[in-house]
Amino acid sequence: MSTVIRILQHEPNEKRFAAGETIIEVGQAGEYMYGIKEGEVDVVYNGKVLYSVGPGGLVGELALIDEGPRSASIVAKTDCVLAAIDQKRFLVLVQNTPYFAIDVMKIMAERLRMTTALL
Description:
alpha+beta
């Protein structure tokens, strides 16, 4: 089991979203990254679904790292329960659990490869 999945199981700050609800809007400032505890979300850019992310996955992490605006929208594909992790909590997780940071980097690398393949 990955470090991300173990951490998500115990994150107390949960947010629930109904299918079709926008979780993150492209261009917004990033206050949270989200770990998918239950359900599935779509990553959307220019009205096109780039890929879906299910339980154990993360979305929105880039904005916590570079503090830039959101690069894509995230829409609940199904009803979902997400662990909301703000920048302060993210930094604590990275500092206290180095494998968490490595798992996040692996997820980001995988996303970059998927997005590049779409071009």
